[in-house]
Predict the structure.
Amino acid sequence: MSYVDEVLEYVKKKNASEPEFIQAVTEVLNSLRPVVEANEELYKKNAILERITEPDRQIMFRVPWVDDKGQVQVNRGFRVQFNNAIGPYKGGLRLHPSVNLGIIKFLGFEQIFKNSLTSLPIGGGKGGSDFDPKGKSDREIMAFCQSFMTELSKYIGANVDVPAGDIGTGAREIGFMFGQYKRIRGTFEGVLTGKGLTYGGSLARTEATGYGLLYLTQELMKCHGESMEGKTVVISGAGNVAIYATQKAQQMGAKVVTCSDSTGWIYDPEGIDVALLKEVKEVKRARLTEYAAARPSAEYHEGRGVWKIKCDIALPCATQNELLIEDAKQLVANGCKCVCEGANMPTTIDATEYLQQNGVWFVGGKAANAGGVATSALEMSQNSERLSWSFEEVDAKLQNIMVNIYHNIDDAAKRYGMEGNYVAGANIAGFEKVVNAMLAQGVC
Ligand code: NDP
């Protein structure tokens, strides 16, 4: 049995109740086979795969808080500190009822490789709680966040572990948590990212994931002798990633003709009006029917359907498992050349394989949406320097990072005889750096 298979069996046995974690480890280790086979003796002797699949520590704790009726509520808090070989643990805090240890471990494991790909010194971690922020008052949110941070503050720090936002954790929650950390530890330090601009946040963080996606896509096109100019782009979602991806694509001379939310989608052959989309989604927090009502060129359709529209480039930016095998077939039939993921895991495995087998240039979210965490790391740098960089400065660094990510994943795929397989390239490039650091640091 190969070393990869041995470790997969061991991980499955030890984590039997964590299907998402097993799925993530299986996907990553399978794509690493060529690099592991080339170094099997060294990695096996040093138990690299056993060590990289076992978190440094996983912390679980009680989060008691009082609701608006005076009732005590109890949630479960998590922080998985997975691997700090290349820098302090870094990864978001997810607040959602579906959160459990297996989900946090899966996200923390993936984060190791994504963070490594940014080329910045950040290790992998993830945390959160099964608390549901929907429908809670501001006071209840604050009560939860303060209680959560009261325990979490024992385990984090600007040089130890720097959490960020994620689903359910936005600027409001980060603010409450930062305030409580400061109060308990008596220190003002960059312990969280995604902070408000008045207390250490970074310019361009809001735009970073969408802009970064386009910087990488543009480089990929350029390296295939193409440009963004005049291309038709189909984008799903109408949230943070989708809005800023649309804006940057248009700045690059492409025409974005779709957007979507969880109830319907827009086809606007004249090109999406970003100012109107922002007004509808960021200001009014309304449905896309309002976009269609205000824009004569737009058609609104219920349900899902953006992938039916003929395009050169498709950028899924909404949610997981939103681009299915039948969508992949439709995209290929319509001549789509390139798919880059803005969301996390939006393309199913069979759809990914179909796109790759049919010559579509496909870059997964681990590389393509890394601009968000990269800019969080730039926020850490600014906090350490006690300086704030201009928007242009952060944006230029982001652009440089995304271009480098593309070349690193392209190069890693070529080195192992898988030219054009950017999914394997991303896993390999992220893995190599972490493993080299682990080997240099001895048994720990
Ligand atoms: P938002 O919540 O801002 O936006 C998500 C968008 O997707 C909304 O328009 C939402 O519609 C839509 N959506 C949600 N579920 C569905 C569905 N089932 N079908 C169609 N549309 C749906 O999130 P973000 O833009 O921040 O994140 C989008 C994705 O990108 C997520 O996978 C996230 O993990 C990933 N990501 C985000 C980063 C960031 O910096 N923001 C960084 C890296 C990855 P509705 O308004 O109806 O809910």
Observations:
- The longest strand covers residues 72-83.
- The chain has a mean pLDDT of 96.
- Residues 209, 237-242, 260-262, 317-319, 322, 342-344, 369, 372 surround NDP (CB under 6 Å).
- The two ends are 26 Å apart (CA to CA).
